[in-house]
């Protein structure tokens, strides 16, 4: 159980590293875009595979998010990464920030996506 807690804490720290890297001007645009998507998905209350589906529901939390983090971290320059690691450590000690605007934006994106899917299915069934 301790190993799982340590793994989860490391994952959380890496998400904060990506959060800070996204804000850094030295990070290439494609790395910023990918990092932003990974962070948004990790913090999003909505998953591609809902958690109530047995076994498959936790697949994204166990495979997709860590894989996205690993790929995003490889895209970020080493000097930026080391600075972001220090910022992430400090943030974890002080508590994570709450950004209601970004949270609302993420939920809005998911709502628009589901509305688009519903409209597409409706058009196909016509």
From TrEMBL:
UniProt-recorded name of the protein: YkvA family protein
Transmembrane segments annotated in the record for this chain: 29-46, 100-119
Cited Pfam families: DUF1232
Localisation per UniProt entry: Endomembrane system
The organism of origin for this protein: Bacillus salipaludis
Domain of life of the native organism: Bacteria
Keyword entries, A-Z: Membrane, Transmembrane, Transmembrane helix
InterPro entries membership: DUF1232
Membrane topology category: Multi-pass membrane protein
Stretches assigned to the DUF1232 domain: 31-67
């Amino acid at each position: 159980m301790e190993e799982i807690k340590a793994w989860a804490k490391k994952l959380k720290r890496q998400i904060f590293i990506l959060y800070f890297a996204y804000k850094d001007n030295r990070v290439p645009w494609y790395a910023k875009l990918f990092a932003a998507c990974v962070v948004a998905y990790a913090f999003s209350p909505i998953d591609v595979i809902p958690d109530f589906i047995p076994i498959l529901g936790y697949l994204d939390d166990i495979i997709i998010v860590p894989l996205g983090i690993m790929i995003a971290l490889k895209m970020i320059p080493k000097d930026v990464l080391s600075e972001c690691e220090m910022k992430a450590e400090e943030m974890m000690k002080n508590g994570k920030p709450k950004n209601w605007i970004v949270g609302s934006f993420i939920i809005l994106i998911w709502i628009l996506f589901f509305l688009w899917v519903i409209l597409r299915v409706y058009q196909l069934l016509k």
